[in-house]
Design brief:
Elements (H helix, E strand, L loop, with lengths): L2 H32 L7 H28 L1
Helix pairs in contact: 1-2
Length: 70
Amino acid sequence: MTDEDLKALEKAVKKAKRIASERASELHDLVEDRLPAAYEEIPATAQATYEACLAWAEATAKLKAAEATA
């Protein structure tokens, strides 16, 4: 794996982390500011947060595997 490939993976991890943080913030805002009135939004917001965190975890694992073989 080239240095460029590793840098691309690092960039993907940073992007995935940013997106996961944004989704977590949306979930937090829902809980803090809009419940109980917006209770119907919980499943979709929670699912989006879960998927974003999963994408970050997968990107991180991919980067660590690449770094271990480099």
